[in-house]
Design brief:
The complex is a heterodimer of chains A (140) and B (192). Chain A is an alpha/beta fold and 140 residues long. Chain A folds into two domains: 1-29; 32-138, Beta Barrel (OB fold (Dihydrolipoamide Acetyltransferase, E2P)). Chain A contains three helices and six strands. Chain B has one domain (3-191): Lipid/polyisoprenoid-binding, YceI-like (Lipocalin, Beta Barrel). In chain B, a hairpin with a 5-residue loop joins strand 7 and strand 8. The two termini of chain B are 29 Å apart. Classes of the chains: A alpha/beta (140), B alpha+beta (192).
Chain lengths: 140, 192
């Protein structure tokens, strides 16, 4: 009797472990829309932070693990970069640098145009010439 | 921040700032840039395929001299599976310590004059690729295409061996990750 119980427990543990391992392996990247923003800043503030001290801004906005930030600003341009991805660039007051937000077209707000005031949630990945956010969604 | 990477960013910034203030004589030079370049890497093994895309590649190319520079944010590579993306950043690329990859080199085989007429131009690309803080020389082939409207596109494919850049793959997953990653570059350049 005891052997049967032990065998059943082991079997359940193996099956449970297997299901958990597969779920972890097959886990899709989380939608930004489902995650809370850790910081809320304007596009000007975000660029200024990276311009003033890239290392400090990286620690704050990129973090050591993936984190969502919310950025508000005015749309400078909207540029399709592939069949299903559009970059929305926010004004920063600096012609040479912006905050570039990568949207899947399905997550793009239908009413957004150049000049619109918007709020974006996304994953900040750092700065090249622009501050770059990926997996963006409209915050409101 | 790694001084080398900071220097690369400053270098790209300096190019843009210099261009904005360049005297008219310099404007005759043919410079192209994009901030939306697309790099894909692909690993194929019998165990699984791994693919990631980065559509935020920043590059400046001076077609007069051939000089070209790229910068890429490692955390901007996007995977379908969350676990792959986490392992890529945390276990292999150590992207908190090495947040950028860069390439600095030269494109030869096409002249600034060629770019004024439609055509497909095979080119040679040579330079230094820095990934994970380790620089290695790269020589590969590429293609520059100019269409009827004058739009300039560039593409290339080459292999990268993780171990060449000090990226250690643990034995337990060695069979899941190709020894050589296929890297594909696709750029829609705009004239500066």
């Amino acid at each position: 009797m005891n052997k049967k119980i032990i065998l059943l427990v082991v079997l359940l543990a193996v099956v449970g472990g297997g299901i958990y391992a597969w779920a972890q392996y097959d886990r899709k990247v989380a939608s930004t829309a489902d995650l809370d923003a850790r910081e809320s800043v304007t596009a000007e503030e975000l660029l200024s932070a990276f311009t003033a001290d890239e290392q400090q801004a990286t620690e704050r906005f990129v973090g050591t693990t993936e984190q969502v930030i919310e950025v508000s600003g005015t749309v400078r341009s909207m540029e399709p970069v592939s069949a299903d991805v559009t970059n929305v660039t926010l004004e920063t007051g600096n012609e040479l640098a912006g905050v570039v937000c990568e949207f899947a077209n399905t997550d793009l707000h239908p009413d957004w145009r150049s000049g619109a005031t918007v709020k974006v949630k996304g994953i900040c990945t750092g700065v090249l010439l622009d501050v770059v956010l990926v997996r963006c969604t409209a915050a409101e | 921040m790694n001084t080398e990477k900071q220097g690369t960013m400053n270098s790209l910034k300096n190019i843009c700032i210099a261009l904005s203030m360049a005297p008219m004589a310099l404007m005759a030079q043919e410079r192209f840039a994009t901030r939306n370049g697309h790099i894909t890497f692909f690993s194929h093994t019998s165990m699984e395929d791994i693919e990631a895309h980065n559509r935020k590649v920043t590059t400046v190319w001076d077609a007069t001299t051939g000089a070209v520079e790229f910068a890429v944010l490692i955390k901007a590579f996007e995977f379908e599976k969350a676990l792959m993306q986490e392992h890529f950043n945390e276990n292999y690329m150590d992207s908190n310590t090495f947040p950028k990859a860069t390439f600095k080199g030269k494109i030869s085989g096409v002249s600034a004059a060629d770019l004024k007429k439609a055509g497909t131009y095979p080119v040679d690309v040579t330079g230094e690729l820095t990934i994970h803080g380790v620089a290695k020389p790269v020589t590969t082939k590429g293609t520059i295409t100019v269409d009827a409207s004058g739009a300039v596109k560039a593409s290339s494919e080459f292999d990268v061996k993780p171990e060449d850049h000090g990226i250690e793959i643990p034995g337990v997953v060695r069979k899941n990750i190709a020894e050589r990653m296929k890297v594909t570059v696709a750029l829609d350049y705009a004239k500066m």
